[in-house]
Amino acid sequence: MRIGVCVALVLLLAACLVAAFRLRTRPTSYFAHGGGFVVADFSKSIDPRAYKRMGQLLQTLADSDQRLGLIVFAEDAYEMLPAGTRGDALRPMLRYYQVGTGADAVLTIGAQETPWSKAFLGGTSIGRALRLARELLQQQPNSRRSVLLVSDLDDASSDVPLMTQEIGHYRDEGISLRVVPLFPSTEDLAFFSGLAGPDSILSGNQLSENAKVAERQSVVGSFPLWLVLPALALLLGLGAAELLLRRLEWSTA
Fold first, then answer.
1. CA neighbor of 39 nearest in space, from 168, 136, 114
2. CATH of 37-216, one of 3.30.2310.20, 3.40.50.300, 3.40.50.410, 3.40.50.150
3. pLDDT tens across 33-82, in order?
């Protein structure tokens, strides 16, 4: 009986460990399991309203302080922050964005020159930026393979073949691609959705919900039912073992 109870308790402990390792949490809705790259469009073709959305995104990432890398691009792309950087490192950029809550919010970035104002004067090459992000992820095989593209999706016609090819590489290599659209045209949005899939596009409601989550907590996840049940069974089993299998006591009579 003692051997049987011990085996049962060990099996319950193993079940708890397996359930614990299979827990899935995510740092808000942007990255599936944490980490990866934010690929931000700094081209001049962006709608001025988009800077407000960009500021809200950066504010959320900075507040949640999740680990990420930052790639910025227009015609060319370069790595501004390496993968694994704390999200709080984005906070110095927020001074170029005055994020308001109403329709009359003032955009600081439209009123002053930024460090990247003169560096990004060409067209938009999404494919080059996605390729750079993929190549950097390949250098870190143990990192989370997620990319968050922030763009108006107005890609240069000469870059479309490369962008199409890169989205195919993302699909083949299992890299999660999510998109924060910066007020794109209907045609550009439909074209990109057809390539990457409609589920890759984050809606305005998802962005708002993400911002609210970031104000309260850095990770979210479902209730760990399959961890709680074996844990309770393990506790009950330990109590039963103490009650039924306590050491024998010899009578002195």
1. 136
2. 3.40.50.410
3. 445 899 988 776 666 677 777 887 888 788 776 778 899 888 888 898 88
